[in-house]
Amino acid sequence: MKKNKYLPLLFLPFLIGTLFSCENNEPPTYDLVVYGATSGGIAAAVQATRMGKSVLLIEPSARIGGLTTGGLGQTDIGNKSAIGGISREFYQGIRAYYDQPEHWKWQDQEEYLDGGQTRTEAGETAMWTFEPSAALQVYESWLRRDNIELVTDQKLDRANGVKKEGGKILSIQMLSGEEYHGKVFIDATYEGDLMAATGVSYTVGRESNATYQETLNGVHTKLRDTTMTGYPARNAINHNFVDGVDPYVVKGDPNSGLLPGINPDGPGEFGAGDHHVQAYCYRMCLTDHPDNRIPFEKPEGYNELDYELLLRNYEAGEKGFPWINSKMPNRKTDTNNRTGFSTDFIGQNYEYPEASYEERESIREKHRQYQKGLMWTLAYHPRMPEHIREEVSRWGTSKDEFAREDGWQQQLYVREARRMTGAYVMTQFNCEGLKVAEDPIGMGAYGMDSHNTQRYVTEEGFVKNEGNVEAKVQAPYPISYRSITPKRTECTNLLVPVCLSASHIAFGSIRMEPVFMVLGQSAASAAGLAIDDDIAVQDVEYPKLREVLMKGKQILQN
To answer: Which tens digit of pLDDT belongs to each residue from 196-217?
Structure first.
């Protein structure tokens, strides 16, 4: 366990206020306890300090920042004018970081061309592309600046670690035995572990279209022409195999068995719900600088059969490049999934949301080994097209980004896990502007985006992916305060800004790191008001909350 890493000696007011309880061997009671030092968790902690509240930030792993410091340097949001408050401050901090010449080690600043993401308008003070290490330095500087108390490597005892009384959480206990008391709690993890352990209702997987009368949820085995508002939805076509890829170990012989990763039970009925979550991957931070590059190596236990579908896809006529290799500063990248067989480990994450810590680590390692084998195959396998081998082999993981010797990160891209079923459920209707939340705490702006969830054999006997949805939103749309509050009967002092209450397809739009920071700030703002008035989070008066949010420069309307 690492404790109080950023707690300076000057952090005296809270220490003095808890002196007498410590003398009686009673643990201190914080105003706010934030579980999960993701981007949203950090924003919540910063906002709590600005409201004069004592706050404890708990991170289950050894590294803060979640995906923002874990490889996702290509900021996805759609319309960046929808991002304000502490979230925009972060991207302004990134701009300030890169305005310092000493942070350009592997290339000159003038050489960096990112494809248009760094600036989105003339004179903008923010920067939207960055290295993981840059994001980490910005967040660490915030924790030092605001005297935020942080403990790392502290995992919640998910079986017996939540003590409640009268619908309120009194304290949470870690596997280490450490116990933390608070007045209000925020679950800012990607998995929703505190929410689940508290007994709050949640769901995992895709609802059927019928559940919320949506059109973009559930199984997608065919192309739907439009969304409710008439925008085309590219769902069954993108990120898929070309026609004619044989799914069997021995081509044309069903008796030889299916190749790895294909669902033998078929895809399910169109529009039906299931327990599938969209695919995970590692957002790789690669480099082509020879002094900073770790070449791709064939992993131990490599099995060519695991990549046979990739090879067959190209042999069947695939022309696309199998990654999105977005340029980051210092000759690095944020590398993401593209085409029918790429970095997404499709169908191999269904158990992750509910899995034990040990099982999750096993799933993360399987994803890492899969991706290691994928990159070696792309770079060196003789059956890959030569132009792909030549390009991919120029790259490798970065020596100077993560703690692992192989250059890979620990943070898996958990695109979705549990989702709360709270006081208000955000749905496709909200994203498309057909239903408008009356109590906005931030704006979503990205398209409704789901990665594939499974592979199956078509009626024609070929392999296809299923689950990809890409649908536009008309404009930034408001996210309801009630979507981060549990039902009153389940808990009255918990807020959930990451695994919030949303359908699968609506969460696919909301689930962006800038929005998680927005929602984290808004959650802490509501927590502060609930503490001041000694009321349930469900009883926070929205006009008061809105006033605090506007003071914090949040964007609440177009």
So the answer is: 999 999 999 999 999 999 999 9
**132-145 and 39-50 are packed helices; what angle lies between their axes, rounded to 10 degrees?**
20
Contact criterion met (CB below 8 Å) for 47 and 39: no
pLDDT digits (tens, 9 = 90+) for 449-472: 999 999 999 999 999 999 999 999
Residue 224, CA atoms < 13 Å, CB-side half-sphere: 25
pLDDT digits (tens, 9 = 90+) for 248-280: 999 999 999 999 999 999 999 999 999 999 999
CA distance 548 to 51: 9
Nearest-angstrom CA–CA distance, 351 and 356: 9
Whether 55 and 393 have beta carbons less than 8 Å apart is answered as no
Full set of structural domains in the chain with CATH: 2-90+132-205+478-551 (3.50.50.60)
- Which neighbouring-strand residues pair with 172? 162, 180
* Strand, coil or helix: 251: coil
Most distant pair of Cα atoms in the chain: their distance: 76
Q: 315, 386 in Cβ contact below 8 A?
A: no
Looking at residue 201, its amino acid is: S
Residue with tokens 């592997």: 106
551: left (phi over 0), alpha (psi -120 to 50) or beta: alpha
Dihedral of CA atoms 457, 459, 461, 462 in degrees, nearest 10, equals -60
Q: Report residue 20 CA to chain centroid gap.
A: 40
Give me the residue label for tokens 């600043």: 109
Gap between the Cα atoms of 514 and 84, Å rounded = 9
Residues 6+ apart with CB under 8 A from 278: 415, 416, 450, 451, 452, 453, 467, 508
Residue 544 has pLDDT above 50, yes or no: yes
Neighbouring C-beta atoms of residue 243, cutoff 10 Å: 11
Closest listed residue to residue 65, CA positions, set 40, 46, 85, 44: 40
Instruction: Tell me the HSE value of 397 on the side-chain side, using a 13 A CA sphere.
Output: 22
d(CA 526, CA 140): 24
Q: Which residue, chain included where needed, has tokens 């061997």?
A: 25
Q: Which residue has the tokens 């502490």?
A: 86
CB of 234 closer than 8 Å to CB of 530: no
Angle at 508 (CA atoms; ends 66, 214), nearest 5 degrees: 155
Q: Which stretch of DSSP H or E encloses residue 181?
A: strand 179-187
Q: How confident is the model at residue 486 (pLDDT cuts 50, 70, 90)?
A: very high
